[in-house]
Write a structure and sequence with these properties.
The chain is an alpha+beta fold. It is built from 20 helices and 27 strands. About 5% of the residues have low confidence.
Length: 658
C-alpha cells in the first residue's frame, strides 16, 4: 500500500513537472514572440488584416469681401463595392443602380464582379442619389456595397467669377484658378486611418468610414465684391451679345489699394460642371492672354514725355495725316487727313497717331522702354492667380526707329488686360504703382487671421503733379474726344480708347480683318474710387474701341457710381446730348402724329425700329414685353412685324441689322 502510494505520488510529481515545463516553454515562446519577434509578426498581421485608407476633411470656404460664399464644401457619400463580399445577382443590381450612378449597366456589372476588395462605384453622390441607393441596398439586403464620406466642392453662384475661382477635381485637388493656387492652403487635412479587415479583406468595423476630422481647413476672403462682379458680368453679356465679340474681359480695380473688385471673362463656364465645357472657357483671359493694347498704351507714352519734360500740354504739333519713320508710313485712324496744328492735349483727346509718334521719338527707345517696365509691363504683376503672362517688350538695343514709332502708338508690344489696368491705376493713384491682389485675408480653421494683404507699393513711376496733369488731359478724351460714349452724367471720368489689330495665336503677324477694341478709365477724377478696363476680342461689324468698348465702360461706371453712393460733381446736363448729324434730311413740313390707340389688356403696339442700334432696338422691344430676336450687326434695316401693329405681349420681333 505504501509502495503504491509512493509510486502514485511520483507519477503526479512527474506530470506536474512536465506540465510546468510545457508552461515554461509556452511562456518562453510567447515571450520570444512578444518581445523578440513581436514587431515582425505585428507588421505581418497588419499587412494581412488591415488596410490603410486616406480620409479627407472638407475644403476651406472661399468668401467675397462681404462674407458671401463663392465656393463651399460638404461631406457627401461616395459608393464603393467589395466584390469579394458581393453575393447578389450583378445584372439585377446593376439594372436598378446604373441610372442612379449615371453608368451603363454593363460597366457597373464589371465593377461588381471585380477581383479587388475595394472598387469605387460613384464619388460624391448628391443627397437624393445617396437616399435612393441606400434605400435599394436596405430593401434588397445587398451585401458588399458601402458608403464613405468625401468632400465635394460647390459653387453656389454657378458661373459667377468662374475663371477666378477655378474648380476642383477628383480627390479634392484644385485644378485651376484660385482653387489650384491655394490648394495647399484650403485643402482639408488628409488623415490615414487603419481599417481592420478579415482574411477576405472585408472591413470589420465599417463605421470608421463615417469620419470627420476635427481640424478644419483655412478659409479665404477675396477682394472681389459679388455685387460688382454681378454688375460686370451682366454688362459683359450684353456687350458680347451686341458686338458679337468672340471673347471679352472686364476688370474693376480700386486704384488706391490694388484690390481687384471684379474680374470677368467670356466665354465662361459653370465650375460645378466644368468637364462639360471646352478648356478655352476655363481660361482667365484677364491674366493669361496677351494682346497689342493700341491707343490705350498712349497714356503711358504721354506719362513718360510729360515726366521727362519733353512735351507740354499746350505745345502745338504739325499734323499732315501721316508720318514716315525709317521708310514706314504711319497714318491716323481717320486716314491721311491732317489736323493742321494740334496741341498735345488735342492729340491725346483725339488719339492722333502722328502726334504720338513725334512725342515717342523725343522720348527715345531706351527711356520709353524703361517707363514701360516701370509701369509694370514685360513681367507678371504678381497677382495670386495662376497662369499669368509676362507680355512682350522690345530690347531697346534691338529697336529701330520704326519700332520706337509703332511702340508709341501701342503696337509691336503685347500686354495683359491686368497689366494695362494696373498701369493706368498708377496714374489715378498720384503716380504710385501698386501690386494688384485678389486675396484679402486667410483665416485658420480656428478663426484666427493667418494672412492679411495690405497695399503693396511697387514704385513711384511719375510724380503726383504729372499724374494730375495727365488725368486732366485724359478727362478730355471722355468729355470732348473719341471716348464721348464713356460719359457718365454727373461725374468726371478719365480714360483712353483703343483699337488694335488682332495677333495670330502663334504670335507671328496679324489676323487680317480681326481687331481688339478696348477702353480703360478711372474716376471720379477728384477722388478715384475704381478703374475699369474693357477688352472686346474680335467683334463683328464695328470694331472701334470708342464706339463699342466705351459704352460698356459707361454702363458699368454708371451702376458703380450708384452702388458706391457717389455724389455727382456735375449737373445732369453737364454733357449735352449729341445733336443729330447734319447729313440727316429733315422734313420741310411738320408731320402730325396721331394719338396712340387704346390697347386692350395683354396687347402691345409694335415700335418703329429702323435705324436703331442693336442696344436701342433691344431695349425698346423688351421694355414693351416683346421678345427681341436680332439678326446681323450694325443698324436696323428691317423688322418682321411692321410698326404700329397691335400684337400680344411676348410676340417675337425679328430685326435685321446691317
Amino acid at each position: 500500500m505504501l509502495h503504491l502510494t509512493t509510486s502514485f505520488k511520483g507519477r503526479i510529481a512527474l506530470a506536474v513537472a512536465a506540465f510546468l515545463f510545457v508552461i515554461i516553454v509556452i511562456i518562453g515562446r510567447l515571450g520570444w514572440i512578444q518581445f523578440v519577434e513581436g514587431k515582425k509578426y505585428t507588421e505581418k498581421m497588419r499587412e494581412q488584416m488591415q488596410e490603410n485608407k486616406e480620409l479627407q476633411s472638407p475644403r476651406g470656404t472661399i468668401f467675397d469681401r462681404n462674407g458671401r460664399e463663392l465656393a463651399i464644401s460638404s461631406l457627401n457619400k461616395s459608393l464603393y463595392v467589395n466584390p469579394r463580399e458581393f453575393k447578389s445577382d450583378a445584372d439585377t443590381v446593376a439594372a436598378e443602380l446604373a441610372p442612379l450612378v449615371n453608368m451603363k449597366p454593363e460597366d457597373l456589372v464589371a465593377k461588381l464582379q471585380g477581383e479587388n476588395s475595394f472598387v469605387w462605384i460613384r464619388r460624391t453622390l448628391e443627397p437624393e442619389q445617396y437616399h435612393d441607393i441606400n434605400q435599394i441596398i436596405r430593401d434588397q439586403k445587398i451585401s458588399g456595397l458601402y458608403f464613405v464620406d468625401e468632400s465635394k466642392r460647390y459653387y453656389p453662384n454657378d458661373n459667377l467669377a468662374a475663371q477666378v475661382l477655378g474648380f476642383v477635381g477628383t480627390d479634392d485637388v484644385g485644378l485651376d484658378g484660385l482653387e489650384m493656387a491655394l490648394d495647399k492652403t484650403i485643402k482639408g487635412k488628409i488623415v490615414h486611418q487603419a481599417v481592420d479587415t478579415d482574411n477576405y479583406g472585408i472591413p470589420i468595423f465599417n463605421s470608421i468610414f463615417t469620419f470627420a476630422p476635427q481640424e478644419q481647413a483655412s478659409n479665404v476672403v477675396l477682394t472681389l465684391d459679388s455685387n460688382i462682379q454681378f454688375i460686370v458680368e451682366q454688362c459683359l453679356d450684353q456687350a458680347v451679345f451686341e458686338t458679337n465679340a468672340s471673347a471679352a474681359t472686364v476688370i474693376v480695380m480700386n486704384p488706391k489699394t490694388g484690390e481687384i473688385l471684379a474680374m470677368a471673362n467670356r466665354p465662361t463656364f459653370n465650375p460645378n460642371d466644368f468637364a462639360k465645357y471646352n478648356a478655352m472657357s476655363w481660361r482667365n483671359r484677364a491674366v493669361s492672354v496677351i494682346y497689342e493694347p493700341g491707343s490705350t498704351f498712349k497714356s503711358v507714352v504721354a506719362a513718360a514725355a510729360l515726366q521727362e519734360g519733353l512735351v507740354r500740354p499746350n505745345e502745338y504739333f504739325s499734323d499732315h495725316g501721316y508720318i514716315e519713320v525709317s521708310g514706314r508710313r504711319i497714318h491716323n485712324a481717320s486716314g491721311e487727313e491732317g489736323y493742321e496744328n494740334l496741341s498735345f492735349t488735342d492729340i491725346i483727346k483725339n488719339s492722333v497717331n502722328t502726334g504720338f509718334v513725334q512725342v515717342g521719338m523725343r522720348v527715345g527707345a531706351v527711356k520709353l522702354t524703361d517707363y514701360a517696365r516701370n509701369f509694370g509691363f514685360g513681367k507678371p504683376t504678381g497677382i495670386e492667380l495662376p497662369g499669368e503672362e509676362s507680355g512682350i517688350l522690345f530690347n531697346p538695343a534691338d529697336m529701330r526707329a520704326s519700332d520706337t514709332a509703332t511702340m508709341s502708338i501701342g503696337q509691336s508690344i503685347a500686354v495683359t488686360p491686368l497689366q494695362l489696368l494696373t498701369a493706368v491705376s498708377a496714374i489715378a493713384n498720384d503716380g504710385v504703382l501698386l501690386k494688384p491682389h485678389i486675396i484679402k485675408e486667410i483665416y485658420g480653421g480656428d478663426g484666427s487671421v493667418k494672412v492679411t494683404t495690405v497695399p503693396d507699393v511697387v514704385r513711384q513711376v511719375i510724380s503726383s503733379e504729372t499724374a494730375h496733369t495727365l488725368t486732366e488731359m485724359l478727362e478730355k478724351v471722355i468729355s470732348e474726344g473719341g471716348g464721348k460714349q464713356a460719359q457718365v452724367k454727373g461725374y468726371r471720368f478719365a480714360g483712353k480708347t483703343g483699337t488694335a489689330e488682332r495677333l495670330n495665336e502663334n504670335g507671328a503677324g496679324y489676323e487680317a480683318g480681326h481687331y481688339i477694341a478696348s477702353f480703360v478709365g478711372f474716376g471720379p477724377i477728384e477722388n478715384p474710387q475704381f478703374a475699369i478696363i474693357v477688352v472686346l476680342d474680335n467683334p463683328g461689324g464695328v470694331y472701334y474701341g470708342g464706339l463699342i468698348a466705351a459704352p460698356v465702360f459707361k454702363n458699368i461706371a454708371t451702376q458703380l457710381a450708384r452702388y458706391f453712393n457717389l455724389k455727382p460733381q456735375l449737373n445732369a446736363d453737364a454733357f449735352p446730348a449729341p445733336q443729330a448729324a447734319q447729313s440727316v434730311v429733315q422734313p420741310k413740313t411738320a408731320v402730325s402724329v396721331p394719338p396712340a390707340p387704346e390697347l386692350p389688356p395683354g396687347k402691345v403696339l409694335v415700335p418703329y425700329l429702323i435705324g436703331k442700334s442693336i442696344r436701342d432696338a433691344g431695349n425698346c422691344v423688351t421694355s414693351l414685353g416683346l421678345t427681341f430676336v436680332p439678326n446681323g450687326t450694325g443698324l436696323a434695316t428691317k423688322q418682321s412685324i411692321s410698326a404700329n401693329t397691335i400684337v400680344d405681349m411676348g410676340t417675337e420681333i425679328m430685326v435685321t441689322f446691317e
